Every structure is written in structure tokens, then in C-alpha cells.
């Protein structure tokens, strides 16, 4: 039985006054005459959070136009000016983190430590890009068409206005972590706040304004994806009204729609989508460490994490020992909902998430799977609380086997060989993240390259790769396109432009030389450069 923590009455954080809410509302871009609002439901107690103004399709077009107008002047600012704003934001975020942690918990329901991890990620991203972004965007010299006569540089120029569509599960990290490199690269940004967690993004926009970010360079719009999301991308029937690049994080089904719309507009799309991430335990693994690492990677953020572990594949030589250790570690987790650090696993975010998790477990049990621990909701702790769950005997015909659950549920599988384990790890359509546990890190590294996943963690569940901000993070297969973090996480918001300078005379036959003579000299040059091993 998972350790439980009695849930106190869940109320709006005391510092969130009506005056503060009104101040945040001014960051929602919409027509002043509009009165439409939307109100999310707090996961902890099922009561309304706070009404937020809603934007329409016309508001989105106006927000893009406003950001586009401001973008040119923003891009001409010295790098030190833009970086200084981001570093001031870093300091304010660290100083006032308890405010946004309260908001994240109130809007989304996660445990406080999981909410604090968003502070860690965003602060690290802010420092990294502010200090290294200039290098990522620096000019790159290359050899020209005629060595000695042609000087060539590849330069990076901003794309213009970037559209951001971010999800509810990491309302700070997955929203702002992409906005910062886009802004530093000289772009304007228009972000769609998720309808479940808009207050977190509006609080963050307020904080960046305090850090010195101009009002019109980053706008926030609120509303349903079918209206606001599609308007961000634009329509071929209204050219020039959409953004120049769309960054989407969310489900694979919606990602396909975003990709199709972006293709129609001939704009790039970076898509981080779903995952059914495997963890492989080899025969020589430290079983205790592997079980602890599995629990951390599976149940962090109540399992509502695109890179969290859902499938656990264990070598038969250590299967029984690992199963016992995993069940014990899972049952040692503290389950509940509080605004302090006394809980390890919090609430699910919505009734829809609870229904999806419950359905996967129920259908698996009905088809013959066994619940080793968990497997039930806990309305005594909160309306959307579900116990961390370990299943055994899951078969391919069960939805929980290869469909994304996105909740605190993992399934155990036995493998007789490393080859079988890797084969099972590669089952399904997804390829986002994976984990291998072994005392022989060289063997694990070799096996890692056989797994179809954008990131593979060795002797860690998920955090090692995700926290390595200098390395790209993204998926293969149905898990998406493009990368966040690292050089690509910033360069994707720019266009590569080639600037070639010709010295002396233009390329081509000089005056008075026949084409036959010029071709002969060109052929002689080709042979000479071949002998000299040039290019």
C-alpha cells in the first residue's frame, strides 16, 4: 500500500488576490471590447480557479502583427541587452519561485518537488542561452567557389515571429523554456497558453516584463486550440497572417494536425509528441539502484510527462529480485496533495486524465494482467488522485501495452537476452526516451545506439538526458520532429543565410576569352585540385 498523506482543504493560494489576477489579465492579447472568459478547474478540490480572458482568431492575427512590428528593432539590440533581460528574469524566477510553484500546483495538481523541477530547468535554460547563445548564432566561415577569390560566410538571421503551443503538464518549463531561446535569437513570439494552466504563463509574462522585456515582443493568447492554435499557423487563404515557425508540444494526434497545417503554409514546425518509453534492466544491473531510478522516472509528475517510463523490460536472471524491489519502492512513495514537500506523487490534472489511466488499468486487468501494487483511484485523498501502479502479464492486445497512458502506471516484461530486451524496447510507434541499467556502461552505450529513441539514459531513468541542456532533446518516429535544448534548440528559430563576397572579378569568362578556353582552364583546375586533395 502506497504511503498516504492526508489532504488539507485545497484553496486558492492566499497571495493570489483579485488585484494580482487583474494585473495578469492585461497580458492576454484580445480586443478590449470582448468579454469572453474561460475558467479551469483546480485538480485538488474540483473548484474553479480563476476566469481568464479568451482571445479570438482575429486577436491572434493582431498579436502576430504587433510582434512582427516590434521584432525588427528587438533583433537590432546588442546581444548583451537581450541576454541581460534573460539573466534578470533568471534571478527574479529564483527569488520568487514559491509564487509560481503555488500556481503550478493549484492549476495542475502535481507534487511540489515536481513543480520545483520546472524552476530548475527554466533557470538553467535561461543561463545557458544567455551565456552561450551568441556562440550558437555566430557567423561560420566556409571556403568559396574559387579559393582565394570568393569569401563566404554562413550567418543566422531571425525567422521573424515564432508561434508556441505548449501543454498543461509542464506549464512553466515547456512554455518558457522554448520562448527564451527564440527571443534571444531576435524573434518576436506569440504563445498559446493551455486552457488548464493559463495563470502560470501569465505570471511568467509579468515577470519577464519586470526583467525589462518590451511589451509587444512577446504576446500571450488564450483559447481553444481549434481556434487559437490554427490561427497561429495561419491559412493559405490569408497569407502573411500566421507565424514564421510553429513550436508544438503535445499529443501525436494533434502534432500531425499541426504538421499538416504548417506544411500548407510552408513554415517549419518543431514537434515534441508522445512516448511509450522503455526502461531496460540488464542481468548485471545494480537492482536496487535500477528499481529506485525506475520509480523516479515513472511516477515523477504523477506520470504525466512525455519522457516518463511506462514499459520496464527486465532480464530473467534478475526479474524476481527487481520486481520485489520495484514494488517495495513504489509502495514507499508518499501519495496525496499538499502545498509543501511532504508528498512524492500528487494528483492527476483533470477528469479526462483520470479516466484514461483508469481505463488502461481496468481493461488490462479484465484481459488477464495482474496488479502488483496500486491500481485504484483514491477519492479519499483527492478527486483526481490515482495510486502509482505496477502491472504484470501485459500482452500486446491490451491498450496499456503500447499506447501512451500518461499517468502513474508501468508494466513489467521479462526478457531472456539483451537482444530480446532491445527488440521489445523498439516495439510500437514512439521513439522519445529510453533507459538502460547495467554495471558495464560500455555495453550499455553500444546497446543504446540500437534503441530508436531521441535520448537514451544509462543508469538513470530520464533526468540525465533531459537535464543536459547543451544536448538536444526530441523524438524519433511518432514522437516528433526537431529538438529543444542545445544549439538546435536555438538555431531552429533562425534561417541560415549565405553571404558570398567575390574579389577582383565576377565568376565567369573574362572579357576576350572564348568559352572553349575558359572550359579548358576550368577542367585543368579540377584536375589540379584533385591532385592537391582540396575538397
What structural keywords apply?
535 residues, 7-stranded mixed beta sheet, 6-stranded mixed beta sheet, 20% strand
Structure, described:
It is a single chain. By secondary structure, the chain is an alpha/beta fold. It has 18 helices and 22 strands. A 7-stranded mixed beta sheet has the order 14-15-16-12-11-18-19, sandwiched between helices. Helix 13 links the parallel strand 15 and strand 16. It is globular, with a radius of gyration of 26 Å. 48% of the residues are buried. The mean pLDDT is 95.
Task: Indicate the topology.
Elements: E1 3-4, H1 18-25, E2 37-41, E3 48-53, H2 57-76, H3 79-95, H4 97-108, H5 112-136, E4 140-143, E5 150-158, E6 161-165, H6 173-184, E7 188-193, H7 198-211, E8 218-222, H8 225-233, E9 245-249, H9 252-265, E10 268-272, E11 277-281, H10 287-299, E12 309-315, H11 319-331, E13 334-335, H12 351-366, E14 370-373, E15 389-392, H13 399-402, E16 409-415, H14 418-425, E17 430-431, E18 433-437, H15 441-448, E19 455-458, H16 463-466, E20 476-477, E21 480-481, H17 488-491, E22 494-502, H18 515-531
Parallel strand pairs: 1-13, 6-7, 6-9, 7-8, 9-10, 11-12, 11-18, 12-16, 15-16, 18-19
Antiparallel strand pairs: 2-3, 4-5, 5-22, 10-21, 14-15, 17-20
Helix pairs in contact: 1-7, 2-8, 3-5, 3-7, 4-5, 4-7, 5-6, 10-11
Mean pLDDT: 95
Strand order of the largest sheet: 14-15-16-12-11-18-19
Q: Quick one: biggest sheet?
A: 7 strands, mixed
Whole-Å distance between the termini? 66 Å
Helix content: 40-55%
- Unreliable stretches covering 5 or more consecutive residues: none
SS content category = alpha/beta
Give the strand content. Answer: 15-25%
Number of helix segments? 18
Number of strands: 22
